[in-house]
Structures are given as C-alpha cells and as structure tokens.
C-alpha cells in the first residue's frame, strides 16, 4: 500500500457565537447546522480518506480529484465552512467598490442580484446550493447546484453561497424556504464577498482586504 501522510480534516469553529445571528438565524439552528450536520460531514470524510492518497491532499484538492462519497462529503465540508464565514452579527449591508461595479454591469444592481439568487434558490428542486461566483476576469455568475455541488470544480471563485438544504432553515421556518433565504440576506456580510472578489481579481487596490477571503488557490 502507498505510504501517505495523514492530514486530518477539522471542523472549523464558527467565527461568532451561536446566539449572535438572532433573531434571523437561531442558536438552535446553528447548533444543528454546524455542530451536528457540518461535523458529520467532517467525521465521515475523515473515515473515508484514512489510509488513502486523499489523506495527504488539501480539502480543495480532494474535491477536485474525487467523486462519489468522498466528493460529496469533502464538498459539503468546504461549502459549509464557506457559508458560515460569510455571515456576521453586524454585517456590512451592501457592497461597494469593484464588486458593486461588477454587480451593476452584470445584473443592473444589488436588488436584482438578490432577487435572481433568491429565485434560483426557490426553484431548486430538493437540496443544494446557489452560488455567486467570479471567473479570473471578474465576470460574475449565478448558478444553482444540486446536493453538494460547488463552483470549485469549474475553477470559479465563489463569493456568496445560499444553503438550500432544509437543515439550514427548517428549525426556524419549517417548510417556508423563502423566509429562510430572506433571513440569510439579513446577516450576509458583504465585506467578505468584496474580499473574495478582490482576491479573485488579484488587484493591488483590493489587497488590504485579502486576509478575510477564503481561497483554494
């Protein structure tokens, strides 16, 4: 058997307390969503990759080179870490700078972007994710992906994620998906999306914000 170096996948702690996003996202929802669902993906992935070449890879490389159960759990680990990191108790309520310019160019404005992403989330059958992503040229894309789907496999730079799995909203809103999505926008921190966009562009004027951006590059 090939000798591989173990590299355990860890559950990333929330960057805020579980009560910090109330009244929009409850402490109970964050407990189940992060401490149970997210943790389950982490634990299952560790089990699946133990003793395999995947154990020596970064999480992003696992996603890009796997399929089946390994891909599903790896993608869900990354997707959820990304999702939780975009939320904040006192978020920046609107984008500005180069991201705002790109949103106006592609969608006409922030309101239309929010409407379009929400529409994609409402129309997605079953579970999945809706993403705002950018390519290396800064062009923006909105797309819905089923189950564990992630833009990483297409070398896009995710900026915003809407979790359309029921565990993201069912405790607070039961089957009212629209209310769960509306609540998400209330705690979405646009400064995180700005930092992610600037990192995708690799522009000097944006680099002061890079420390807040997650990246697999």
Structure description:
This protein has helices spanning 27-49, 59-65, 68-85, 97-107, 110-123, 170-173, 177-187, 190-201; strands at 128-134, 140-146, 157-163. By secondary structure, it is mainly α. Strands 2-1-3 form a three-stranded antiparallel sheet, sandwiched between helices. Helix 1 packs antiparallel against helix 3, helix 2 (59-65) packs across helix 3 and helix 5 (110-123) packs antiparallel against helix 7. The longest helix is centred in the first third of the chain and has 23 residues, at 27-49.
Number of DSSP-assigned strands: 3
**Rg from Cα:** 17 Å
State the CATH class of the largest domain. Alpha Beta
Could you report the average pLDDT, rounded to the nearest whole number?
Answer: 93
Strand content: 5-15%
Q: Which stretches are poorly predicted, pLDDT < 50 over at least 5 residues?
A: 208-214
For the largest beta-sheet, the strand count, sense and barrel status come to: 3 strands, antiparallel
Topology pattern, helix = H, strand = E:
HHHHHEEEHHH
């Amino acid at each position: 058997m090939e000798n591989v170096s173990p590299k355990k996948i860890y559950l990333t702690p929330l960057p805020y307390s579980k009560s910090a996003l109330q009244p929009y996202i409850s402490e109970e929802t964050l407990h189940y969503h992060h401490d149970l669902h997210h943790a389950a993906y982490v634990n299952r992935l560790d089990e699946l990759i133990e003793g395999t070449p995947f154990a020596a890879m970064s999480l992003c490389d696992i996603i890009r080179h796997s399929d089946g159960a390994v891909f599903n759990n790896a993608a869900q680990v990354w997707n959820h870490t990304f999702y939780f990191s975009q939320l904040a108790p006192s978020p920046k309520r609107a984008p500005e700078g180069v991201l705002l310019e790109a949103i106006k160019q592609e969608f006409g404005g922030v309101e239309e972007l929010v409407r379009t992403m929400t529409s994609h989330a409402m129309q997605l059958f079953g579970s999945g994710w809706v993403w705002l992503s950018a390519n290396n040229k800064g062009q923006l894309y909105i797309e819905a992906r089923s189950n564990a789907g992630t833009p990483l496999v297409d070398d896009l730079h995710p900026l915003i994620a809407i979790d359309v799995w029921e565990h993201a909203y069912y405790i607070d809103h039961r089957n009212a998906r629209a209310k769960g999505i509306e609540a998400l926008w209330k705690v979405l921190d646009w400064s995180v999306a700005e930092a992610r966009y600037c990192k995708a562009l690799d522009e000097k004027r944006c680099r002061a914000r890079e420390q807040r951006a997650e990246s697999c590059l």
